[in-house]
Amino acid sequence: MTLEQRISAFEKLGCLFRETAGAGGSASEKQETEGLAEHIARLKNLAGTVHIYNGWFTKDNVLLAIRSWGQALRKENLEQWVDRYIIREQVPKKIGLIMAGNIPLVGFHDMLCVLISGHSVVAKRSGGDDQLPEFVAAFLISIEPAFKERIHFTDGLLKEMDAVIATGNNNSSRYFDYYFGKYPHIIRKNRNSVAVLNGTETNEELVLLGEDIFNYFGLGCRSVSKLFIPEKYDLNNLFRAVYSHQSVLQNNKYANNYEYTKTVYLMNGISLLENGFLLLKEDIGLASPVAVVYYEYYKNEAEVLNRLRMDAVNIQCVVSKVKSIKNATEFGRTQHPQLWDYSDGVNTMEFLGTLLNA
């Protein structure tokens, strides 16, 4: 396969995703997806049934992931992305992937990076998200049969690899270091996202912040789990803005977490603010439980900037309109990363590029 063939295959995957999620565009794109009707039907069915195996993967959340990746996998985005790197065609390296399963298709970006750079994937899927990656692989092979030799899934131990990309938590990362330390590797740990508010946010911006908090039930590393707010900030403004997300309680797993955590906090005399589906707790931590968002007051801008620097290694995204915060994410955009937005700030494509000379 040439790079152009790989780009074309992922461009078609983007078309499939957009059409499945109801985000198709021009007449020419509609024509391009006419031959994909069977794949679209299968993916729509999968989006509606995967929750049977993972209760967090509601149809809305699966379609959200599909729609977001569909927007990213446009030809101009793919070309702009790969143009930043020197991709040489040579014997591919075998890259072991250990995929997470906290949100739908969370391991897709690693799979994309490995394949687009010309390497081969040997992936151990999470039991929480095994069907969607399998569908993606089958579709890519149907478009470009040469992918059949480049994509392999395993339920056993990863072996016969040239490098490893493993995603887990702070605990599992120690095991990854032990087992895969001898290989070139990227090993990811826990990360969380935060929002820095200064009181000038519009209601529309706070409504969008609700998406950053509640999309995927707050389970992703790009989900906002912590608020930094100025002293005397009125949190009722936030409660009013996010009230449209009260439907999260219709998910039994979320509702059970909400009730359990609320009960534990109250039994221990911990002060809370709540609106019936979200708990706000004053806490210096970053990683809050499901259905909980921590908040912390700050006195001035310099104080919160210093706090962000101290915790930078644990933060994935910072949502804010504060101008002094560099590379801040816009409200409502945390779950819509670009192809060049890398987890933990580690450039996966540059890592893969170094292997070509190894």
Which helices and strands, and how do they pair?
Blueprint: H1 3-20, H2 27-32, H3 37-49, H4 59-72, H5 75-82, E1 94-98, H6 108-116, E2 120-124, H7 131-143, E3 151-153, E4 163-167, H8 170-180, E5 185-188, E6 192-196, H9 203-214, E7 224-230, H10 236-241, H11 252-267, E8 273-274, E9 279-282, E10 292-298, H12 301-310, E11 315-320, H13 348-355
Parallel strand pairs: 1-2, 1-4, 2-3, 4-5, 6-7, 6-11, 7-10, 9-10
Antiparallel strand pairs: 8-9
Overview of the structural elements:
With 358 residues, the chain is α/β, with parallel strands linked by helices. Helix content is 40%, strand content 15%. The protein has helices spanning 3-20, 27-32, 37-49, 59-72, 75-82, 108-116, 131-143, 170-180, 203-214, 236-241, 252-267, 301-310, 348-355, and strands at residues 94-98, 120-124, 151-153, 163-167, 185-188, 192-196, 224-230, 273-274, 279-282, 292-298, 315-320. Strands 8-9-10-7-6-11 form a 6-stranded mixed β-sheet, with helices on both faces. Strands 3-2-1-4-5 form a 5-stranded parallel β-sheet, with helices on both faces. Helix 1 runs antiparallel to helix 4 (59-72). The longest helix is centred in the N-terminal third of the chain and has 18 residues, at 3-20. The protein starts with a helix and ends with a helix.
Beta strand count: 11
What is the architecture of the largest domain at the second tier of CATH?
Answer: 3-Layer(aba) Sandwich
What is the CATH topology descriptor of the largest domain?
Answer: Aldehyde Dehydrogenase, Chain A, domain 1
Mean pLDDT: 94
**CATH superfamily caption of the largest domain:** Aldehyde Dehydrogenase, Chain A, domain 1
User: What Rg do the Cα atoms give?
Assistant: 21 Å
Q: For the terminal residues, how far apart are their CA atoms?
A: 21 Å
Provide the domain count: 2
Stretches with pLDDT under 50, minimum 5 residues: none
Structural class: alpha/beta
H and E string: HHHHHEHEHEEHEEHEHHEEEHEH
Q: Helical element count?
A: 13
Percent of residues in helical segments? 40-55%
In percent terms, what proportion of residues is strand? 5-15%
* The first-level CATH class name of the largest domain: Alpha Beta
Shape: globular
Main sheet?
Answer: 6 strands, mixed
Give the strand order of the largest sheet, numbering strands 1, 2, ... along the chain.
8-9-10-7-6-11
